[in-house]
Amino acid sequence: MTTMDQRSYSPYIVASRSHTLYIGVTGNLRKRIFEHKWREHDGFTQRYHCDRLVWFECFQEVAQAITREKQLKGWRRDKKIALIENTNPARRTIHRTRLPEALGDVSFNSRMFCVRRGMSQMQIQ
Fold first, then answer.
1. Helices (H), 2-61
2. 16-38: per-residue pLDDT in tens?
């Protein structure tokens, strides 16, 4: 369990209906996905309608999350797709109401915990 002192930092991938991918990192995944959905920021995700959360990980340290984001951005598209399909085979949107409440139930025993537990227990629509 996270406490008030602990934060969760998440590299994430959002996709459009036409399968355009965007990789980002945030300290508040729920809020950031809402911003993508409502196109609150000008730029790539607004232009290409990338608003469907298809993958994320959780880290306790922001530096680790940023490092992972940079690593993912350096990957070829086919490797990114394989990563998504490994935890979300149908590449469906992870429903925002099924994200752990403010990611407050994330355990930091493993950096992959959030993905493994999240994808198996979240409602996917």
1. 29-37, 44-47
2. 888 899 999 999 998 999 898 87
Beta bridge partner(s), residue 15: 21, 52
Tokens of 92: 């469906």
**Cα-based torsion angle of the residue sequence 98, 39, 52, 123 in order, rounded to the nearest 10 degrees:** 10
What domain range is 39 assigned to? 10-121
In a domain, 5, yes or no: no
Give the separation between CA 26 and CA 104, rounded to whole angstroms: 15
Find the CATH number of the domain harbouring 35.
3.40.1440
Number of compact structural domains in the chain = 1
Q: Give me the residues paired with residue 53 across strands.
A: 14
Which secondary structure element, helix H or strand E, spans residue 120, and what is its range? helix 113-121
Tokens of 62: 């922001």
> For residue range 79-94, what is the model confidence (pLDDT) as tens digits?
999 999 998 877 677 7
